[in-house]
Amino acid sequence: MPMRRLRRGTRSAVLGAFVVLAALTACSGAPPIRSDVNVGGDLSARAGRLILVVLDNSRGALRPEAGSTPHGYDHEGPYTVGDRARATATQLARSYDLTPVREWPIAPLQVDCLVFSLPPHADRTTLLQRLSRDPRVRSAQPLQQFTTLADTALTDAPLADAALADAASATREAGAPSGYNDPYLPLQWGFSAMDVAGAQRWSRGRGVSVAVIDTGADIHHPDLAGRTQLARDFIDHDTDAFVADRHGTLVAGIIAAVANNRLGIVGVSPDARLQIYKACEPVAAAALAAECNSFTLALALGTAIDQHAQIVNLSLTGPPDPLLRELVIRGEQRGMIFIGAVPPDGALTGFPLAVPGVVAARASDQGALGPQVLPAPGRDVLSLTPSGHYDFASGASFAAAQISGALAVLRTGSPHASAQQLLLALRRSVEHTATHGEVVNVCVALALVQPLDVCHSSPARRVADQPNRYNR
After folding, report:
1. Measured CA distances, 61 to 37, 58, 114 (Å)
2. What percent of the chain has a predicted confidence (pLDDT) above 90?
């Protein structure tokens, strides 16, 4: 039975029924959600009148201060705004009649990042040109907007636990992977299509730190217990809203949902550790769609670099952005891998995909976009939703999450391989499945970077022995 038909049938059979797992969340061991004084929310409505100005802040002031980026230089203390940068900001505000709105020092770039509001009737383009020519300014740009990449057509309530259990039982005969006790695994068609179970016999992402730059996420969900090492909110101080956000919860679950806990689903890399950074805000309470801006994304990227994330998931899209580009390149120089999602129009020209080195992930039903774009399941992907629930979701956001999880598996399975070697292995592993089109095969990719024959399937031997069109 097609998954879409199954899903609609189970929904109609269980209207109004929920089995809430929230009673289990008290033991999840999730870290506290830190929300600093100078967060970047409440900017979207005024974005057209806001600009982002970056000033040099090279190693001047390293003293404790609320809102400073932690652990930028652990041996010297928190990285804060230096006196020179602060004086320059004051001078610029006076010279151009600007109103300061937000400020944040970004340690990896040694800069001070400021959001200014334009004076009434000022032309933004003209003012940005003037600022860009000012020798006191490192860069000046618009405050740009970004959106997550989920299919928001399905906005109904999450599926009931009983419905998922019935659907999983009906689907089990189709050949769900053995060796797991997670009841909804039979509904994770992508898990089978990508042969994640084969790869997990050897590697589950242990020791790999994955940053999810997204909305907030339900870090108390029983299927994320012990998987979150750090949670930061760059939007506001609302911890209830943080754990109620859907998009980030879905992404986090796909990457690292706990395996063999007799609950729910299995993440692609269930032993990976998550850093959850809320840089995007849902357009409405409980909405799947969310928006971000240059400032909040810069804060999250800077912190992910500070905190030594190895893989960064960016399930979002927007225009090219100079500051964000510089941050991603700095992270890549430190060995980090960044994964972006391909928008519905297939364009690879915005942020983050236009940044050299960023991995482009597409949903397998988006059609072929070239050998450099990694395909993964993006339609009817089962994952976590807030308050201990589970639901299906579609969109390139969730294909990117599966590629992030796959890279965590490969990183643990072959810790000495370069990022380029891991990506080449994934490209060479792409296979065509009769039902769902092209997807990466995680077990085949692991076999290609391991000295051992870890995947005994014939596809693994075929790909290893006969380089195909993805080996370029």
Report:
1. 19, 9, 17
2. 69
| Rg (the chain; Cα; Å) | 22
- Nearest to 352, CA basis, from 316, 398, 394: 316
Q: Exposed, middle or buried, 361 (CB in 10 Å: 0-12/13-18/19+)?
A: buried
Tell whether 234 and 365 lie within a shared domain: yes
Is the Cα dihedral 388, 392, 398, 399 positive or negative?
positive
Instruction: Pick the catalytic residue from 220, 221, 247, 436.
Output: 247
Instruction: Determine the pLDDT at residue 27.
Output: 44
Domain at 126, CATH number: 3.30.70
Asked if residue 183 and residue 114 are part of one domain, the reply reads no
Give φ, ψ of 351 to 5 degrees. Answer: -90, 135
Name the more confident of 44 and 408. 408
User: CA 414, 420, 422, 424: dihedral to nearest 10 degrees?
Assistant: -140
Q: Active-site residue 397, yes or no?
A: yes
pLDDT tier for residue 4 given thresholds of 50, 70 and 90: very low
Asked if residue 472 belongs to a domain, the reply is no
CA separation for the pair 156, 158 (Å, rounded): 7
Instruction: Among 88, 107, 142, give the residue marking a domain's end.
Output: 142
Domain containing 134 equals 44-142
Q: Any idea which residue has 């201060």 for tokens?
A: 65
CA dihedral of 430, 433, 436, 440, whole degrees rounded to 10: -20
Residue of 68, 397, 404, 414 marked catalytic: 397
Residues 138 and 152 grouped into a single domain = no
- 360 and 454 co-located in one domain: yes
Residue 268 and residue 402 in contact, taking contact as beta carbons nearer than 8 Å: yes
| Average pLDDT of span 11-15 | 32
Total structural domains within the chain: 2
Q: Which of residues 89, 116, 142 is at a domain's end?
A: 142
**pLDDT digits 0-9 by tens, 317-367:** 999 999 999 999 999 999 999 999 999 999 999 999 999 999 999 999 887
The distance from CA 89 to its chain's CA centroid, rounded to whole angstroms, is 32
Query: How far apart are the C-alpha atoms of 210 and 336, rounded to whole Å?
Result: 10
pLDDT over threshold 90, residue 429: yes
Is the Cβ–Cβ distance between 394 and 380 less than 8 Å?
Answer: yes
**Is 247 among the catalytic positions?**
yes
Reply yes or no on whether the pLDDT at 310 is more than 60.
yes
**Catalytic position from the list 112, 214, 271, 306:** 214
Q: Which residue is associated with the tokens 């999810």? A: 212
pLDDT recorded at residue 10: 36
- In the structure, what pLDDT confidence band is assigned to residue 35 with cuts at 50, 70 and 90? confident
Is 306 among the catalytic positions?
no
